[in-house]
Amino acid sequence: MRFETIAARGGRDVPSASRPLTPPIYQTSVYAFETMEDVESAWEGKQPGFLYGRYGGPNTAMLEAMMAALEGGEAAVACASGMGAHTALFLALLARGDHLVAARDLYGTTTAFLNEELSRLGVETTFVDATEPAQVLAALTPGTRAVYVESISNPLLKLVDLEALGAELARRSIELIVDSSLTSPAVLRPLSLGATVVVHSATKLISGHGDVTAGVVVGRREQMDRVRATMIKLGTNLGSFDAWLAVRGLRTLHVRLERQSANALALARFLEGRQEVSRVYYPGLPSHPQHGLAQRLFKNGAGAICSFDVKGGAPAVERFMAGLRLIEFAPSFGDVATTWSYPARTSHRRLSDDDKAALGIGPGLVRLSVGLEAVQDLIEDLTGALDRTRS
Ligand SMILES: *Cc1c(COP(=O)(O)O)cnc(C)c1O
Question: How far apart are CA 109 and CA 348, in angstroms?
């Protein structure tokens, strides 16, 4: 082979009697075939075979297999982001004229997607207080195809009685879609409680190290085949490296969540005892209005997210920020490092003060994403910052 040919084709096959213990990153956008029969059977799905990057590759297939198994679903589809997963799911499932019932407490971009994109395509959404299954059922119409809720709402940590809702919706053949980004399968397995589809921002707890943007949908096989077909047309596919990182994150998910939940509970208890804090929101606390439901639904703790109201509103929150030494402000959650966010200026900034107040998002509301640090270091940091809010 001449120089140019070696440059174009050389070094691809490295003989080895062993195989990598850790799966490699398949950084290829296309696959090579030996026979036309192989082309046919791979394309028609008669035997396993990868084709082209946008259709998925070995690393996304590994993430999908793990997520389907951990959630107890038949199949999964990995996407480029949580919103990419939502887009593929909603467009696969819904058509013009269909009706959706959704929780009022939702991730801001999801609300915007339902109101500003799906509505243009002729899919109407009715928003309800999903903590009351009766309100969800009262909003159903003959055209309702699906009910959409978050497993724990952000930032006020409201829960949905998935068992009660799932049983009622199953009787009416209506899908129950659960965004489980705040719980992850280490804390909650919605499919075992009556949900029919689970969707994740794998950017958060699944990957867990603040270095991935990804999403996953899990559900029945025929349904996921449709989601994948839509995803392939939309182009919201996940890259190999991000899929590989998400799989690596999943390996420690249950251990991380066990410690993060324990740390979050300790911080929630600590915050409840502080005079500068008027209210703490954490489903693991007996003071949470749905604590009994949390104990029934969750395993291994109540998750990594905890919110609280600082007395004194926005000026007190500014002093709180100035007083923190360890915990950083970052508008996401799920990292191994503890971070905090301020919903009034981040996720809910576009809402009017009245709308924020109606949702219960006041100017003193702080959201913590609790990490793996020694909890005493976190308590000392919060003590210093809360002391500052009084000055
Ligand atoms: C972050 C988040 C999303 C969106 O996920 P991206 O990965 O940012 O696209 C959707 N739902 C919830 C509950 C989230 O926290």
Answer: 10
**Average pLDDT of 129-143?**
97
Helices (H) and strands (E) in the chain, counts: 14, 12
26, 105, 107, 259: the catalytic one is 107
What's the half-sphere exposure (Cβ side, CA atoms, 13 Å) at 219?
A: 27
Is the pLDDT score of 67 beyond 90?
A: yes
- Find the mean pLDDT for residues 7-25: 92
| % residues pLDDT > 90 (the chain) | 92
Q: How far is the CA of 176 from the centre of ligand 1 (A)?
A: 18
Return the residue whose CA atom lies nearest to atom 9 of ligand 1.
Answer: 82
Q: Judge if the beta carbon of residue 308 lies within 6 A of ligand 1.
A: no
7 falls in which pLDDT band (50, 70, 90)? confident
Residue to probe by mutation, ligand 1, list 204, 213, 216, 341, most atoms within 8 Å of CB: 204
Q: Would you say 368 and 381 are in contact if contact means Cβ atoms under 8 Å apart?
A: no
CB of 131 within 6 A of ligand 1: the answer is no
236 in contact with ligand 1, CB cutoff 6 A: no
Give me the pLDDT at residue 362, please.
94
Is 179 annotated as catalytic?
Answer: yes
- Across the beta sheet with 365-369, the strand order is 277-281, 305-310, 365-369, 339-341, 328-329
User: Distance, CA 28 to ligand 1 centroid (Å)?
Assistant: 27
Residue 52: φ, ψ to 5°: -160, 145
Q: At a CB cut-off of 8 Å and minimum separation 6, what does 33 contact?
A: 39, 42, 49
Residue 329 has pLDDT above 80, yes or no: yes
Which of ligand 1's atoms lies nearest the C-alpha of 182? 13
This prediction has a pTM of: 0.96
